[in-house]
Amino acid sequence: MKYGGGGYVTGLVFHPTTANLLYARTDVGGAYRWNQATMSWIPVTDGFSAAESFQHGVESIALDPNNDQLVYMVTGMYNSADATARLYSSSNRGNSWTSVSLPFSAGGNNNGRGIGERLTLDPNLPSTLFYGSRTAGLWKSTDSGRNWSQASSLSSVKMSSDQISAVGGHAMGVELAVYDTGTKGTGTATPTLYVAIAPDYVNVAGLTSNLYKSANGGASWAAVSTPVSGYHIPHMVRAADGMFYVLFTKGAGPGDSGPARLYKFDGSTWTLLASNSSAGYGGLSVYGTGSTTRIALGVSGTWGNYSGQQIVQLSDDGGKTWREIEATMPGETASGWVDDVEIDPSNRDHVLHVHGGGIVETRNASSATPTWAAAVDGLEETCTLALNTPPAGAPYLLLNSSGDVGTWIHTDLSKKPTLSPYKSWGSGNSADTDWSDSKYIAAVGVVNGTGKAGGTGYWSGDGGQTWATFATLPAGGLDNTSGSTNIAVTARNKAVWAPADSVPSYTTDNGATWTATNLPALTAISGSPRSYRMVADRKNPNKVYAYDSGGAWWSNSPGKVYVSTDGGHTFTLSQGSVSANLRANPFWATSMAVNPYVEGDLWLVDGNAAYHSVDSGASWTKLNNFASIWGGRPTSQYPDVQGASVVSLGKAKAGAPYSAAIYVIGVINNVWGVYRSDDGGTTWARFNDDAHQFAGPGVMAADQNTYGRIYLGGSCRGVLYSN
Q1: Structural domain boundaries of the chain?
Q2: What are the pLDDT digits (tens) for 140-153?
Q3: Can you list the pairs that 242-247 forms with residues at least 24 positions away whose Cβ atoms lie under 8 Å?
Q4: pTM, whole model, 2 decimals?
Q5: Does domain 538-723 have CATH number 3.40.1000.10?
Q6: What is the pLDDT of residues 37-69, one digit of tens each?
């Protein structure tokens, strides 16, 4: 579904000779390729399976200038002392991939993720690749990435877990590698290349500079004296005449606030071109040569759009003079995390840059007043935390609660939503509607960037057209705001709110007051926020169900279901759920849903298996279809792939024996997928295919208007829907 961007794009990589061939990497939402014919982005990692969700953070991309079909990317969400990164390679522009495990970790969603590119290949001998790792130095492959060895002539140091923790858990290491050549395809290895070294790795490896040079293809290295020491080098770009342009900025980013410097470097002499003591430099791109070199400079850590503001600085005389081309200019501007800027190699007037919400571009950079616009069609990177559908005939289609962009009410599948309670930087955790009066909606979330606790709740009585905040918040509502927070609506003005790690409370007066339920307090589990998952019976709103998933697999606290018959005021433990021995799992790996067409008909997935109750949760029957993929681990730990993690029910197939279509995200016969049953769970058929796995969707809602339509929250791939 259309939103457009919504997440941090960390880098843009143009093919140097094939016009309009451009890739975008993101921190949590995979990678994309630009489609010039449709002027939109094509996701190239939607085939990643649930077992590859960790690889949805893309740290670096490299292209072969001799073969525009070939693309490499290194992935891995977070750095560690373990070998968790992978190299993916494609011979068809990302339409399909093969991968190998790498002997180090990557940090696609760590700080400094706009730095790079860390991955480079030799334009003259493209089977040779170098990679600057965060924790284990520089690595080299001579067989197109199949095998790797550490460039120990630079350093053999591999950071320990303690050393990584000592730098805040975000190691920077070897930040980039750049060849010094203007040729390609000669078949002879390029002898000269540079690598930039972050201050943390300079320290642990005992190095003497932030920049090193090899004149023999990486066999040996010599320190290069730099005009600034102890800074990061986020980008280093070679112009066609052999001149290097090098950024120095104090912090790693995103959005470093400086100070910062830009120099040009001819191999021996450094010349200062720009400096800033109150902002950082994040992005850098060059076009042309000599005295007329065009330089685009991304200024980071500045926020706003006002006269005198710097976002993108442009020079057309090799850095002698500069002018601002984005701040106060027409169109949509984006400041702050300007951590990569690119000048289109086939069109010098086309300048793009990344930011925390996607990409913006101008196609008339030479104008005195360039016009800017978002370039995010097809690029969907919102991280969906919860989805909910109203009854058939409601004036809207979907309630969408997402991280960093808030709660949105979708009324049209093809258009960006406009209805939202808070159109600013915030996260939506949960939203629900009154099924007897679908114009009433309640939503809970958190206002980001307030510098204090920011939990909040909203309600609308007109289908999302207008909103008001709840007059008060329940205990835990202000402070406990993780994604496990959720709300269930029982009737207009009545709801049960379960803040994370808190006892749920109910309101009967539209949030004017809240009263704690009698549900037991949950023991907080470090690193795994927990909550009761609240679900209202759609046929009898006096019935409300509360599911405690146990919090985490190591909690040794089996899941339990509690049932209320007084609108969520008081609850009784279902002894049948105790007898079912529900697996303890985190909130995000579990789910519970009601059949909206039959009172007391519940479905539950505990992360490993699916369960069904036809008596309002008094007893539960385990389905034998679903089972986790354990990957050699004992079942006392966590699986590679959860056997059943999300369940939702929607409009039934015409003539089906069961009153609803059931959808479960899980594993049957060792095959992960979205599965559907039309006969009450007796038989199941896979609903998706291997090309549409989205790195394992974490949330799902089934449509009540159209049979076969479901809405998925992919692994930070926005909201997707089926027909």
Answers
A1: 382-516, 538-723
A2: 999 999 999 999 99
A3: 242/180, 242/182, 242/266, 242/267, 243/289, 243/293, 244/178, 244/180, 244/194, 245/273, 245/284, 245/286, 245/295, 245/319, 246/211, 247/281, 247/282, 247/284
A4: 0.96
A5: no
A6: 999 999 999 999 999 999 999 999 999 999 999
